[in-house]
Amino acid sequence: MAVLQEITGWLSHIMFYVLCVVLIAFVAYCLYVRHVHQKYDHIPGPPRDNFLLGHTPTFIKEINKSDGVIHDLFLEWAEKYGPVYRLNSLHFVVVMIYCPETTKTVLMSPKYPKDPFVYKRLFNLFGKRFLGNGLVTATDHDVWYRQRRIMDPAFSSSYLRGLMGTFNEMSERLMNELEETADTNTPVVMHDMVNCVTLDVIAKVAFGVDLNLLKNTDSPFQTAIELCLKGMVYYLRDPFFKLNPKNWKTVQQIKDAAELLRATGEKWIQNRKTAVENGEDVPKDILTQILKTAGMHEKANNLEDHELMLDNFVTFFIAGQETTANQLSFAIMELGRHPEIYKRAKAEVDEVLGMKREIVYEDLGKLSYLSQVLKETLRLYPTAPGTSRWLPDDIIINGLKVPGGCAAIFSSYVSGRLEKFFKDPLKFDPERFDVNAPKPYYCYYPFALGPRSCLGQGFSQMEAKVVLAKLLQRFEFSLVAGQSFDIKDTGTLRPRSGVICTIKHCTQDVF
Fold first, then answer.
1. 45: domain range?
2. Residue 89 resides in a domain
3. Which of 175, 363, 408, 416 is a plausible cystine mate for 379, CB 3.0–4.6 Å?
4. What pLDDT shows up at residue 419?
5. pLDDT tier at 453 (50, 70, 90 boundaries)?
6. How many domains does the chain fold into?
7. Could you tell me which residues come within 8 angstroms of residue 500 by beta carbon, excluding any fewer than 6 positions away?
């Protein structure tokens, strides 16, 4: 009995000391948060929801809104607080920047690495390795540069010219599908259709695999990409998402999806390795370049090599497919809403292409107005709406000193919708990008800027132009009445309705 009392006494003492340590740690953490507030509170910004969580409750509230787009809130704050404002979450501080000079300084220089809080967090997705140390998420400049140098040949102008055949082939599949619905007044969800095409394109030209998703509509691969994109939003914006029991099923589905993407990559990479070992001719595509990354680190072990290859496999599917599909969907939506722009774009396509079915590389340069339509689409609807960098040192932004040691976010969505940069910013006006129009000064960057700009932007815009040109050449389309033209935020931005159209064969008079 005495021994039991002694043990109980010891446990009481231990619990007391543990509680004291926890209390001291909590107080110390609160003091540190207060220090961070004092360090950055001279920067304007919206009132914090509370001392510890900062603005996190507002973010979560916006995410959970059925029709919420958090970038509209950032736009509202930019109009209210100016070209630089502060946001807090726990002990983290983020500055939102809409100053062209600072945008140029930071994005154009390798001195400012990608924000490790965001990009290192995407190493995993709810505990499953996701983008890892791939080309998008590598925060160390030297590590990123070695990968970028290896990948560059797969995006050279000479290689992209050789992809025109595949762009035409996959676009023709879409046209053939639309033939079946033309003249029947059957509504078509255009986002679903172009999403299949862009995924087919990236699978074929990057990895040598023909998915043919317009016919194979039950592919788990497409669903897995969709789940991972949603998972990225939950994972980055809501730190408490996985703690809520009602979300556990969703979290498991997202983890399974990430695992499926990597398992698919493993299979495709092994098939290509076997082909190389057997002396077969293989294309100089993205997959070939991914295999070369295995030799990037001389001292890397085989497991590290293998995982890095899978990192880049997942990276190119996540970054290279959904964004182009969303751009095309928004472009179709705006053309349907503006008959005069539609007629001018179609007239240009008819003049350049006539009746020929095979679009050649030289045709793309002649479709200048169509390029303006696509650029204006990305101004209003940048499908990857922003990027972030780490500020290691103090910096002066618009006359305001911002202490180093925080992240900076540059939102092309917000910049593209600010009146100070674009007159009547919510108006869809391709004339803004006419060759003789004044050029936007570091406030238009849908593919980011500088050394970390999107490697695949040329690829993406060639593909988008081929698909849209063929659609205008072959069909008339009109938007089904009553649908929403709002934006849905799933990590990338897409039309909420999916853009529902009726399709008809072209006649002489359009609209």
1. 41-505
2. yes
3. 416
4. 93
5. confident
6. 1
7. 187, 188, 189, 190, 479, 480, 483
Q: Which residues are annotated as a binding site for heme?
A: 454
176, with CB counted inside 10 A (0-12, 13-18, 19+), is exposed
> Within a domain: residue 267?
yes
Q: Of 9, 204, 205, give the one whose Cα is nearest residue 213.
A: 204
Q: Name every residue whose Cβ is closer than 8 Å to that of residue 359 and which is 6 or more positions away in sequence.
A: 164, 167, 168, 353, 466, 469, 470
| Binding site residue list | 454
Q: What does the pLDDT look like over 156-200, one tens digit per residue?
A: 888 888 888 888 998 999 998 888 888 777 888 888 888 888 888
Kindly report the three-state secondary structure assignment for every residue of 267-284.
HHHHHHHHHHHCCCCCCC
- pLDDT given at position 373: 96
Q: List 394's β-bridge partners, or say none.
A: none
Mean pLDDT within 345-362? 92
What CATH number is attached to the domain comprising 222?
1.10.630.10
Q: 364 pLDDT exceeds 60?
A: yes
Averaged pLDDT, 481-485: 84
Q: Report the distance separating Cα 506 and Cα 511, nearest Å.
A: 11
Give me the torsion for CA of 457, 499, 432, 344, rounded to 10°.
110
Q: What is the pLDDT of residues 23-37, one digit of tens each?
A: 888 889 899 889 989
Residue 345 phi/psi, 5-degree rounding, is -65, -40
Taking residues 8-19, report their average pLDDT.
Answer: 75
**Mean model confidence pLDDT for the chain:** 85
Give me the pLDDT at residue 38, please.
Answer: 92
Query: What Rg value do the Cα atoms of the chain yield, rounded?
Result: 25
Residue type, 36: V
pLDDT class for 293, splitting at 50, 70, 90? low
Both tokens of 50, joined, read: 């509370």
Dist CA 24 CA 439 (whole Å): 56
pLDDT in the model for residue 511: 38
Nearest to 491 by CA among 383, 379, 330, 375: 383
Residue 3 lies in a domain: no
Q: How many CB atoms within 10 Å of residue 22?
A: 10
In a domain, residue 491? The reply is: yes
